[in-house]
Amino acid sequence: MKITTKHRFSLIALLPLILFAIPRSASAQSDGQKLYDNNCAKCHGSDGSGSTAIGKAVGAKDLRSDEAKKLTNAEITTQIDQGKGNMPPFGGTLDKAQINSLIPIIREFSKKAAAPSKKAGCCSRSDGK
Questions:
Q1: Residue 16 in contact with residue 80, Cβ under 8 Å?
Q2: DSSP label at 3?
Q3: φ, ψ for residue 89 (rounded to 5)?
Q4: What's this model's pTM, rounded to 2 decimal places?
Q5: pLDDT at residue 51 tops 80
Q6: Torsion of the alpha carbons at 44, 47, 52 and 55, rounded to the nearest 10
Q7: pLDDT digits (tens, 9 = 90+) for 61-111
Q8: Strand partners, 87
Q9: Which residues lie below 8 Å from residue 99, measured CB to CB, with a gap of 6+?
Q10: Residues with Cβ < 8 Å from 16, sequence gap 6 or more?
Q11: What distance in Å separates the CA atoms of residue 109 and residue 115, rounded to the nearest whole number?
């Protein structure tokens, strides 16, 4: 197949678009991570477990849990925007693009296994046996 001048020009014209798209994706991921670290990690923890002192006090959800895995992107967006339970709304401080940048961060946590939950009395006995 012979590459014509017209094809060469098209390829050259598309190259900058492709090159700009790649760093933008990486930048969006790091922006989302910064937002998570500044706004979410206080309660949900750097690992998404919700096991920080504040997270335990307010009952922050484990972002690695089966419950979190079942949430749609729209449900996650709504919870961040409007809050839910003890979680405050962030719609007044984060814009839609910022909230959307948190979705991949939260999805990464859901790929990791949550710690098994301990039921009261299942794992230890008061008589030491």
A1: no
A2: P
A3: -75, 140
A4: 0.66
A5: yes
A6: 20
A7: 999 999 999 999 999 999 999 999 999 999 999 999 999 999 999 999 988
A8: 84
A9: 77, 80, 81, 90, 91
A10: none
A11: 12
Which of 118, 117, 108 has its CA nearest to residue 69?
108
Strands (E), 8-117: none
d(CA 39, CA 105): 13
Which residue do the tokens 């700009």 mark? Answer: 20
Three-state DSSP state, 41: helix
Distance separating alpha carbons of residues 127 and 84, to the nearest angstrom: 41
- Helix, strand, coil shares of the chain, percent, nearest 5, are 55, 0, 40
Tokens of 73: 């992107």
C-alpha angle 18-19-24 in degrees, rounded to nearest 5 = 95
**What are 17's two structure tokens?**
């678009």
Closest CA to 39 of 81, 85, 78: 81
Q: Determine the Cα–Cα distance for residues 78 and 87; give it in Å rounded to an integer.
A: 12
